[in-house]
Amino acid sequence: MITDRDVAKQVSEGVIAISRMIDDTLIAAKEHCPEEDFRRLRDGMARVLGELLLEVLNPLYRDHPDLAPEGLYIPTSMKEPPPDAPKVIARRQLMYSLDHAPGSRFDVEIRVFSPSRTSRGQADVHDEHMCRVEYVGFPFGPEWLHGMDSLQALQIGTNIDRFLLDFEKNKQVRFFWPDGSRYFSEEITPSPDEP
């Protein structure tokens, strides 16, 4: 992305300063805005911060890892995984748009990892396996989906439509295949029992 370390450092510091200004703005707005207005403002700011992280900071820190602030999450795709780490076994390329900006489309790659046994404290006592799902390019962190065995964990992990459908119904996001056609063939409408 940016090869010059000094320029990369300036970009990193600038984006972090923007992030702090947004945080301060949200704190001030929360005290003076109605809840619904604040929620819309917060969600919009979260999308902006997500894009800055995914499109600017993560690629920058991949090339200049020494500039990354301590404790910042860097996706596994940007670090070398340990040899025994679960591997990506399935991928889906999609695009998404936001209802308030329908002309803009963003790429998202969904990655499903091989199931692995859970460690103590990662799941409830009955869960035996988990499957990691990442949404690269989408401002949503990875999920660890649990099952009684590796097959159930994989079945749950590959059922990405439940997540995407929830976002279409509740978050004003639309998903598309790479050719531009709608991912869900019909318009999503709430069921009669939903408000």
From TrEMBL:
Organism lineage string:
Bacteria, Pseudomonadati, Pseudomonadota, Gammaproteobacteria, Lysobacterales
Organism superkingdom: Bacteria
Any idea what this protein is called?
Uncharacterized protein
